[in-house]
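Table S5 (text form). Sequence records supplied for joint modeling of the two-component complex.
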Amino acid sequence: MVQVSTQEFAAQCYELHQPPPFASLVRTREGETDIFAVVYHAETGPLEPGRRPVARGREETEEEGVYRSHPQLSRLLRTEFRAWIVGHRVEGKLVQALSPRPPKLHSFVYLAKTDEIGEFGSSLHFLGPLATAPLPSREELIPAFLLHLAGSREDREEFLLRAGKELTLLLRGDAPRLQSLLRRLS
Amino acid sequence: MSGKVLGRVVGGSLVQGLRVRLEEGVSVEAVGVGRYVTIEGEKSRFFGLITDVELGALERGLELDVSDPYIARVLSGTGVFGTIKVLPQLALGVVGLEAPPPARTIPAPFSLVREASEQDIALVFGSEDDRHFYIGSPLDLEVKVCLDLDRFVQRSGGIFGKTGTGKTMLTRLLLAGILQRGQASSLVFDMHSEYGWEGEREEGGVVKGLKQLFPSRVAVFTLDEESARRRGVKTDFNVLIGYDEIEPGDIALLRETLNLTDLAAQAPYGLARHLGKGWLESFLSYSPAQVKDLAESLKEHEATLLHLHRRLEQLKRLPFLLPHSPESAVERILGYLEKGLTVVLEFGRYWDIVPYMLVANLLSRRIHDQYVQRAERARGERAPHPRPLVITIEEAHRFLSPELSRQTIFGTIAREGRKSYVTLLVIDQRPSGIDEEVMSQVGSKITCLLDNEKDVDSVLAGVSERTELRKVLSRLESRQQALVFGDALPVPVVVRVRDYTSIYKRPPELKGVEQDRKDLWEE
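The corresponding structure-token record, covering 709 residues in total, follows.
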């Protein structure tokens, strides 16, 4: 974890080009508290902001060749992702709200396990804050996250129906937005 | 056992009804107007009637593509939802009271609304006993709605509905109920000869008349012996009426039906003063020349008397009218009524409105006079009260129109109510033709489908839940359904009218069964 705040954190991946998928649920820990967040952004770039990569591989036939010919690249580049905090678990109880303290810098971040994802989907309280979160990818994130949660649940259809109804209540007054979100869920 | 949950109270008022939002999964199609619900308030339970069903949307113009089945499912119940309007009527569960009291407040917000269970309905509409008569079941429920016959006969009652909606069947049912429970004697002016002996059903087949069901307690009188003989009816008395029994008022009443001018309708009063008791017989026997002489001595317009004479000639065509009747029909009828019997007077072929009005008015007036005297005696000398009498008349708007209701005895009876122990059961298809004042005295109303606005208004005049009932009334099915409200029931109710034949197929669960009825059930 390379940057933290109450609402979100950024983490650097140990493997180049291997960020957790968009809209997946990740988990980290702060003391006794598990913190859950949804991945909303990932990028790969130079370690030093001033040094822009240059185009390579004119002589190569395949892309992997570029990295074979320039092994230093994997040391000069890094992959980072950002995650939006959506809940935490304290004393075994899952709460879909911000945790009292942000995670520590250099904490580890894990992909949430299937049963954790399923459990997270048992409540939809996270939808309200997420629907108004100031994120550029918000309109993509919400349906993708819901589908991600649905994938780990046995009641997939019923879950999506519940989520759709929750969205309808949240987004009354904004029919075009509701329509576009619901279309992605259907 | 409680009924199925329908929704929750979200707004409304006592007068205009509560708005209830349906729970998800409860289809608006499954709740109908006219059904009963209970509402679980914080302190008490309420009993109410569904008076409207509507679809609400979170916002106006929420137009989404619902061709996608997922979106349609998401929106049903959230973006678009069903609401019902419920009129709170009674407060249930108040212990120690005979009948649940009317609702004076409304339940708290978000109170749970359920379908009324059979127990709730039974609590409200009572169960069959000596006083309560099973008349039908609420829509979609197999429970009995029972009329309080004691209260029913205390004031006049009315059965309304357009032609072919089952008024006759209902009347038969009610008369049988009154007979069975013995609340009152009945005198039925049976215009189309369908109550006393067999009657036809609209859907084919015949049903037993009152005389067949209660042979020893019903007497059939007829104005048309020949017709009765042809139909195989065992009649008890052949009614003949003397001209000397007809009073000027009886003629005035026929002004419209005989197409008399105002002056001609008033002339009989002068004739009676001049010619005495046998005025009609004498007048009808006069030649036109004699009528002219009479006009001169009475200082009446000659044309008026000639007009009256011509019109009254019609009466000569009625074979049951004689110069002098050998036996008074009134005495015979009173004799039977005193014994607690029900008298059905069949009109046979003379079902035209002129004889009907003439005979019904004439007999009722004299019978009413007798009851008034007896009632006075009862009050003065502490003599036994007369047995209440219910007079059944059809085509009531002809007698009780605003112009006539002050002249006919029926207007008087309706207004006096129980003072003289005589009440009316009026059967009519055009209640708007009946005088408002009379209508307001009708205590219990049983209304089949009416589609004329004015008729609906007139039936519902003075009822507090008018707007709501109007919706219910205009949505009745055209047969076998009726809205019942008034004194005899705690709340208005729409019933599927009980099958008439069930009263002679089903054994009675009543005490005090008389021989008559016992024979009947053992048949």
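Note: The beta strands of chain A are 3-4, 8-12, 25-30, 33-46, 77-90, 93-95, 110-111.
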